[in-house]
Amino acid sequence: MDWEAAFEGPLSRYLESDGRPDSVRVPWPAIEDADRDLADLVLEDPDNGLKGARSALSSLGYINTPVRVYELPERRTYRVGKYGSSALGELIGVTGEVVDVGMVKPCAREAAFECQLCGTLTRVPQSGGDLLEPGQCQGCEQSSAFRFHLGQSEVVDFQRIELQRTDSSMDDPPVEVVFLWEDLCETVSAGDVVTIVGTYDILPDQDEAVLETYLDAVSINKSEQPATVDEGADWKVRKWTFDAVDRLSTAGSSYDTATREVIDTVSDEHGVAEGEIQAALDDLEGGSLISEHRDGRVHITTSSTPTFEPDC
Ligand SMILES: [Zn+2]
């Protein structure tokens, strides 16, 4: 099923019948019910997946209407800073407290540049960071001087905010920069605890090996309550996870168990989000206590009994 068929069929109830909405909000599970491939595409290649959704809406008469996907699966939802580089380019949900709210500014989502040699306009999509200029002119193919052309650029509201990990005992809790566009601007205030779904990405023009990241927001949901696990409990999640692997592993030669079963067990017993458990598994593997296999199984690789204590 393509987006147009989805919006005409199973997702049609998310379209308002009258008026022109600022955006169309769709819970991710509804996309999954409509079409598994579309749902996967949204998670793994959100830039293209959501662009497709937006252009399908355009064809249906909803011009320039962003699709706001929310309610991602738990395995995709993290506290600030608990996701790794493997999440780059993908759609994730991040829960945290809004701590810094920038002014709403006009920002070129797509900037038009006029070639000073031949006058041809070249359009370059922008990320919200430094202005990206074309490498060369689409007309004369020279890398000439370019002039930014406001009238031909697509300019929308833009706001930069920061999200901080909640309930942290650290002096400097992790913070993630978040870019809000269009109707998402001016919807949060400092102190709000929110879950923001967005594309985890790196800013252009990096000048250090440690990459500057940000979350390009797709949707915002205000949380009823803060994230389930507080900062002091990171070590507890590692302990619960290790214990679960230990307990579920049968005493055979391989001494392993299904990773899925570990995640379900810790999630059921302690109410921990899947992303947190996956992060704990990664930590345990980094500490050479367990080893995860491509076949979805995990086994213990230490013969001693590790101790788990608070990090701070
Ligand atoms: Zn030119």
Automatic annotation (TrEMBL):
<dbReference type="InterPro" id="IPR012340">
    <property type="entry name" value="NA-bd_OB-fold"/>
</dbReference>
<dbReference type="Pfam" id="PF17207">
    <property type="entry name" value="MCM_OB"/>
</dbReference>
<dbReference type="GO" id="GO:0016787">
    <property type="term" value="F:hydrolase activity"/>
</dbReference>
<dbReference type="GO" id="GO:0005524">
    <property type="term" value="F:ATP binding"/>
</dbReference>
<keyword id="KW-0378">Hydrolase</keyword>
<dbReference type="InterPro" id="IPR031327">
    <property type="entry name" value="MCM"/>
</dbReference>
<keyword id="KW-0347">Helicase</keyword>
<comment type="similarity">
    <text>Belongs to the MCM family.</text>
</comment>
<keyword id="KW-0547">Nucleotide-binding</keyword>
<dbReference type="GO" id="GO:0042555">
    <property type="term" value="C:MCM complex"/>
</dbReference>
<keyword id="KW-0067">ATP-binding</keyword>
<keyword id="KW-0235">DNA replication</keyword>
<dbReference type="GO" id="GO:0006260">
    <property type="term" value="P:DNA replication"/>
</dbReference>
<keyword id="KW-0238">DNA-binding</keyword>
<dbReference type="InterPro" id="IPR033762">
    <property type="entry name" value="MCM_OB"/>
</dbReference>
<protein>
    <recommendedName>
        <fullName>DNA helicase</fullName>
        <ecNumber>3.6.4.12</ecNumber>
    </recommendedName>
</protein>
<dbReference type="GO" id="GO:0017116">
    <property type="term" value="F:single-stranded DNA helicase activity"/>
</dbReference>
<dbReference type="GO" id="GO:0003697">
    <property type="term" value="F:single-stranded DNA binding"/>
</dbReference>
<feature type="domain" description="MCM OB">
    <location>
        <begin position="85"/>
        <end position="203"/>
    </location>
</feature>
